[in-house]
Amino acid sequence: MSAYLCGWLGAIGDQIGAPDILGNGTLKPIHIMRGVPGWLQGFQGNEFQMLLRKRAVVNHWRETRPTDFHKLQKRIRWLYKVLNHRTRSN
Q: Which InterPro entries match (predicted)?
């Protein structure tokens, strides 16, 4: 197993350690994200926070995709209950 890992690391070792892959640091990873929705780019948070952002963007689903919107609402309600129950308030 270790021989396999050593071979794998040897094959891509130059790619991992090369600091010049991303350039001089002016280009951030958020700027090169392709195929990611705008409301999700640069997002850092939990699933509940992500679904709240998504609901604000896809609010038109109420009329156009009621089943998908209902599933989204159900997931938000369930996560709210779970996080509210398990998270301590200071």
A: Ribosomal_mL51 (IPR019373)
The token pair at 49 is: 């926070």
The size of the chain, in residues, is 90
Q: Is 18 helix (H, G, I), strand (E, B) or coil?
A: coil
11 pLDDT higher than 90: no
What gap in Å lies between CA 11 and CA 71, rounded to an integer? 45
Claim: this prediction has a pTM higher than 0.70: no
DSSP codes of every residue in 19-85: TTSSTTS-S-GGGG--S--TTTTT--S-HHHHHHHHHHHSTTHHHH-HHHHHHHHHHHHHHHHHHHH
* pLDDT > 90: percent of the chain: 43
- What kind and span of H or E run contains 1? none
Tokens representing 68?
């998908």
